[in-house]
Every structure is written in structure tokens, then in C-alpha cells.
Amino acid sequence: MTMPNSPFAALRADNRQPDQLRPLSFTPHFAPHATGSVLAAFGNTRVICSATIQPDIPRWMKEQKVPGGWLTAEYSMLPYSTLDRKPRDISKGKLDGRSSEIQRLIGRALRAAIDLRALGPNTLWIDCDVLQADGGTRTASITGACIASALAFERLVREKKLARSPMKALVAAVSVGVVGGVPMLDLAYTEDKEASVDMNLVMTEKLEFVELQGSGEEAVFTDGELEALLTLGRKGVRELITAQQTAIQTGIATPAA
Predict the structure, then answer these.
(1) Burial (Cβ within 10 Å: 0-12, 13-18, ≥19) of residue 92
(2) pLDDT band at residue 48, thresholds of 50, 70 and 90?
(3) Bridge partners, 39 (sequence order)
(4) Which among 35, 112, 172, 224 is most buried, taking Cβ atoms within 10 Å?
């Protein structure tokens, strides 16, 4: 197995080293009618992430007298986000199984980072819409949704609708995998397709795990490969958290109109 820092590790198709993230950019306030929003770009993957506060909670919370608020997420890939047109879920009459799994993951990730009691009797709706898919749409969605949520909370505090921000910690996600025997960080689509091991890490800014999703693709992996992937994932999350902090500061300094 070739390790990420090996001088023999071949450059990737986009000339990245195995331990490099794709070029990142976060554009705050991309969706002006949302409480908070950002356009998250991981290389050629682009996702609009928005956070919208509604002054209501699910009926089950009212019936069970559960204090605080709730968070729910929706995820969709727009028809033109892939090379071949992807039909909208509504045209099939049901939510695509993959989309359903991803939006549950987004919801779990954000609920781990947010104090729902501090949210009050409100529901935070997270919407992640994929404009262009080139691998890592779920990790880009989680990372961007965290920024959108933080901006939404800052706006509500500024408007005196919340006493404090319910954000307990930033949360970010990144993909890792073994491609051609080489552990790699932040897989693009062509790499993900060829990976013998594929894993997604969701972590807080303290590098605490929220969720790990990993498997061999008709292959097995060793303790050493797993540790190499976790090391890459931690490095990637640290860099993502730094980028999130910058994006949030930029969004606060230039609030939406």
C-alpha cells in the first residue's frame, strides 16, 4: 500500500496529492429568502445549502411535551446536476432511496451540533440542492448546511428572536478511500467509482466522530489502511472547519439584505 506522504504516490487526475482537498469555496447568503444560506463548492461539486426557521414544531413533540425545537433536512439532486438527466423524485411518485438516506444523514449530523432546546419552539429546515455532482455531495451538503445554520442563528440573535446561538460546535464531513492501493482524501466521482474502499467521516470541530460510513467495494481492508484513512479524514476535517469559520465570519460581516 502506498502511503499518502510517499514520494512514489502518483498525482491524481486533477494534480492533487493524495492528502489534498479539492479547491473549496463558500459563498454566503446565496439564497436570499432563506434565514441562512451558502453555495458550497468542493471542486466541481456544487450544493446550495439553506437553513430556514419556521415557528412551529412537529405534532409528536407537542403531544409528548418534548421541550425545545426540531431540525429536519431535505436533499435533492437537480435534473441537470449529472451528465445524464436525473428525473426529479416527484416524477417517480416517491423519494429516491439514496436521497432519503443522505437527508437522514444530514439531519443526524446537524442535530449532533445544535442545542435543540436553545432553538425554542421552532423547526430548522435544512435544504441541500445539488447543482453539480462530481463526488462527495453528501459531505459537501453537511459541511455547507453547518455554515447555513450558523448564519441563520446569528441572524436570529441579531434580530433578538433567539437569546443565543444554538450552535454547540461546527460539524464537517469529508470522503476518503483507497484508490489503486493509495489512501486518498476527498474523492471526486472518477476516484469514488474506482475505489476499493470508500468511507465518509462526519466530525465536530473537536475532531469527535458524529458518524462513520465505510465499506469495501467487493474488497477488504486492513487495520493499517483504516488508520491511514482516518488520519486523512482528520486532516481534511481540520481544514474544512477552518474554511467554515472564515465563511461564517464573512457572512456575519456582510449580512444578507
Answers:
(1) exposed
(2) very high
(3) 27, 48
(4) 172
Three-class secondary structure of residue 100 per DSSP: helix
Determine the Cα–Cα distance for residues 57 and 104; give it in Å rounded to an integer.
18
Using DSSP's 3-state secondary structure scheme, residue 192 falls into: helix
Contact 99, 76 (CB under 8 A): yes
Q: Which three cell numbers stand for residue 225?
A: 489502511
Distance CA 212, CA 202 (A): 6
The one-letter code for the residue type at 7 is: P
Question: Which domains can be identified in the chain, with CATH numbers?
Answer: 24-253 (3.30.230.70)
Name 177's bridge partners.
184, 198
